[in-house]
Amino acid sequence: MIRKILILIILFFLNINTLFAETINKDLGLDTEKIILKYFPSYEIVGKANYSFLIWNIYDATLITKTGELNNSEFILVLKYNKVIKKDRLINETINEFKKQANFKEEYLIEVREILEKTFKETKVNSVFIGIKNIDKSFFYFDGQKILESEDQKFINHFFNIWLREDSQNPSFTKKLTGKE
């Protein structure tokens, strides 16, 4: 009986935390807006989606282009985190998502892991990751600081395809994000 009551209390607080996070995440924030405007002086939102797993509200995603139409060569992906995620967890999940896309040589995955080790940080509630894909280069920001600039098209395409490919881990999420749902 006590165990059931404890579970109900925990679920109650998790739901309040989720509602609070969703309220906060309606606004991208001033720092995020400044970074977006640096690359896209005018822009429109293609789509928004929330990524949740079981009872955990992980992050809110926003996909932005200059016109509001998905353009695979130029866009901005914004992830606003709703929970703390350890750096190692982020790295391992990213590597797993790369593996789902292609049969990479182990040497390449080691290179990707090294890049992620240098750039990824533990998230906090309201941490913001911004990935900007331009025609020949991409820029990555975390909490307002540039963490990576890359011209490696293989890395760039597979990284963004974590969220944008049709056979992503969560196709419904991808459809909402890409404005198809």
Order of helices and strands: HHEEEHHEEEHH
Query: Total strand count, please?
Result: 6
Task: Please state the oligomeric state of the protein chains shown.
Answer: single chain
| Average pLDDT, all residues | 86
The helix content is 40-55%
User: Which range does the strand content fall in?
Assistant: 15-25%
Strand order within the widest beta sheet? 1-2-3-4-5-6
- DSSP summary: helix tally: 6
- CATH topology: the name is Chalcone isomerase
Instruction: Give the C-alpha Rg.
Output: 17 Å
Question: Judging from the principal axes of the Cα atoms, what is the shape?
Answer: globular
User: Any low-confidence stretches, pLDDT <50, length ≥5?
Assistant: 3-26
Task: Give the end-to-end Cα distance, rounded to a whole number of Å.
Answer: 43 Å
What would you say the CATH architecture is?
3-Layer(bba) Sandwich
Largest sheet: 6 strands, antiparallel
The first-level CATH class name: Alpha Beta
Your description of this structure?
- This protein has a single domain, classed as Chalcone isomerase (3-Layer(bba) Sandwich), CATH 3.50.70.
- Helix content is 45%, strand content 24%.
- The chain has a six-stranded antiparallel beta sheet with strand order 1-2-3-4-5-6, with helices on both faces.
- 22% of the residues are buried.
